[in-house]
Amino acid sequence: MSYDGTGLGGWQRQLGRETVQEWLERALEYVGAGRTCVHGAGRTDAGVHALAQAAHVVLEKGPPTDRLHFALNTALPPSIRVLFAEEMPKDFHARFSARGKLYLYRIAAQEVLLPPLRRFFHWERRALDLSAMRRAASHIIGKRDFAAFATHPGIPRVRSTVRTIRGLHLFRTRFGIDLYVSGDGFLYNQVRTLAGTLVEVGRGKTHPDKIRDILESRDRKQAGPTLPPQGLFLVRVDYGDQYPPSRLLRRNHKAL
Amino acid sequence: MSYDGTGLGGWQRQLGRETVQEWLERALEYVGAGRTCVHGAGRTDAGVHALAQAAHVVLEKGPPTDRLHFALNTALPPSIRVLFAEEMPKDFHARFSARGKLYLYRIAAQEVLLPPLRRFFHWERRALDLSAMRRAASHIIGKRDFAAFATHPGIPRVRSTVRTIRGLHLFRTRFGIDLYVSGDGFLYNQVRTLAGTLVEVGRGKTHPDKIRDILESRDRKQAGPTLPPQGLFLVRVDYGDQYPPSRLLRRNHKAL
Known about the structure:
Chain A contains six helices and eleven strands.
């Protein structure tokens, strides 16, 4: 599914917030699937957008699978849309079967932020040094300990903070810079903190090669700020060879 | 200035709607410029966006010109931003000195509309035939009578409906099709009706060469529907050689 995170309380069900998980479960009940528990590929935070988030749910009744997304979309708010649904093998799990994710962080670098961009970009007032940011990005790619780039609200420290960043690509757009980052999994706030650190490099505040020291320090205070959620998009979730993209998924991936 | 037309009542001041003109005049009063009348280059409709709309105003007091946009932006809602202000020759008029305008109409062609796009795209459920649309567009370029593509609420019929379309370019985007159209001036609803007619060609409902007959008919009923406002952006206003783009304007044009 895709969602516009503006005004949403993120993925995970929680009291007093409108969340994607809760909306989906409500919509499933509305279309006659009964009370269910929807499992997402990952928990996007409040305000973060998704172009193709994935989730699974075990259904015993309800509309036929190929019509399910139409039915659900009649019950969902316009900020949330199910793009398609399909039956998966019994051992498939949206979260545990995921092999990787692709995120996009969008930065508008302009003196005055264009209002149509304000819900989907982080705003920087001045131009950023793209080549310095690319040099810094080269130090981030690979299997590394990203402790310096993660915040851990309530997660015990014993868990590993080693992750693999497979790709980190920066593109100049007509509004600023788009940052695509793919990897096997991400720590809490990792993408937004990587983006914040790269922006400090782009501003000339941090030397590109200092990224290595920041990684080594494993100290969150060494990295840059966690940028706001509205610039972040979960572009897609990859499930590898065991669950090759279906025709539907391939068609949708192509468009994203 | 740039604005996000969502929820705005368009450019022109009118009772009971929040309009850009009214907001600007209110902001000018707030920053100490007194009661003024702001003249826009063109009246965008309710819901239409602008990346670089132009306007002029005669000021006798208030902040210095080079600081004016900062001052105004503190008084404007986040949906409206002044990008810059500069002093112009006395004979300059935002509307009458304009030599042309560039509009963008954005179409998302996808089975389910991605929620982050919903305020900035017209939605088509199926793929559109881009080459047929381009062939149709070739009949539209040039100096022609566009009576068939305009609606005239309250405008007397005696006014000329001849306009010159200088460029009409269609680009495939990852979401659908972007339509850029530039010309010396546009009739009421002309861009949205041109877009609606081209979409009917793209759907295969109208033959590309039928555009010539539609133009000749001068009959609004022969053309396609007027597409909704949220896909339309006023990209910029051109003032020709008499008022060559200033350094500020050039810098801003480059980014749009």
